[in-house]
Amino acid sequence: MTELTKLTLAEVRDGLAKGEYTSVELTEAFLGAMEAHKALNAYIVSSPDVALERAKASDARRAKGEVLGPMDGAPVAIKDLFCTEGVQTTAASKILEGFKPQYESTVSGKLRSGGAVMLGKTNLDEFAMGSANITSAYGNVVSPWVAEDDPEKLVPGGSSGGSAAAVSAHLCLAATGTDTGGSIRQPAAFTGIVGLKPTYGRCSRWGIVAFASSLDQAGPMTRTVRDAAIMLGQMAGFDPKDSTSAKVELPDFEKALTGDIRGLKVGIPKEYRPDGLNSEIAALWDQGVEWLKDAGAEVVEISLPHTDKALATYYIVAPAEASSNLARYDGVRYGLRVENGGNLDEMYMKTRAKGFGKEVKRRILIGTYVLSAGYYDAYYLKAQKVRALIAQDFAEAFKKVDLILTPTAPSDAFPIAGGAKVDPITMYLNDVFTVPASLAGVPAMSIPGGLSQRGLPLGLQLIGRPFDEETILRAAGVMEAAAEFSAVPTLLRGTK
Q1: Would 420 be classed as within a structural domain?
Q2: What is d(CA 192, CA 412) in angstroms, rounded to the nearest whole number?
Q3: Is there a catalytic annotation at residue 46?
């Protein structure tokens, strides 16, 4: 059964259609892998009963000759930020422990109605606030990769670190993630998988526990570019329940993988190559440029002049929105409640003090501060103006080029212990290459480009025009073929 977990989503789709195995057999293989590798802590909740029930239903539909979805019978993982009917949803926070929604998020509902099999809910940084998956109330996730020069356990990136680790370690075929400032792309780079943040509004946010509402976007985390195209097609689409959902045409993303990028113009932003850029990251970036040139693309230097303001802007806007969104967790209606016999205000304070972790409290305090009467104009309003300038930078760049190529992260994965000791500002800098695209709301994708000298994955990022995920996927497919990235996590080496 171990061989089944090595298959890609596209291979499973074809194998199920040919009757080479059943969805139940696939699901049992992944459930076995999840049990064998519990030490990664990739899942907060496993749902074997739900998984097997849905797998049996898929096999029954197939046997009857019913119309099937492109992911019918495929075992996937759902980030524990998506509400799932009857299955605990915690956002990796103690304040939501035991919460079982009576409804399904739109994205997980689309996957479910399309026949996908939910194996469980993956771990994440609490309320998606983090870049290392070390802020979860349910313990940190461990990367399936180990550096060649150091046996210390590594972070899988964050906040979608559980999804990234699960996909990389073959504990699911694919997984959902959410990206607010890089939370799909950075963990994808750290674990050697593909991560796609669609255009803001491409996938519904309804039923996803909110962090920063103007930035959050769901997306696929997969092993290949083709798998990402398949999964995005199932996840995306207009949703009248979400006021930010875009009513735009939903293309066949898989058809975009033509392998032909001749004549495509790709921009290289000079601001993304600061002094002190990691030499391995710089070399990989140069290699990516050569791959694109060899495939017939035209590479030109561009400028995104407000790039250096992006991180500061993000860490004002995102905490401000988080401060407002997290005000709903008060212990009154659902989740944790700390009774103390005092008044309502004391119950609020004690519930939040016990329910929220350190990083969440830090961001609530920052957000509340920048929204306060005396500082709103000086910080929040100014940040919104700079955000508009960043978006304008991208709009101007896309008048000249079709895509932008950058690194995904400024380094390879770092040790868990080291991450716990790093000050918050240094940790925030890990999002330096991913945050600008999030502020602009444009689509961006990380693909594995190679290994560092330590034997760890490094990623390259492609950024595209709004609602032009097709061009990103087309170029990503070409780069994936050129990179020939076939390395497997340390955890899986030697397995049959």
Answers
A1: yes
A2: 10
A3: no
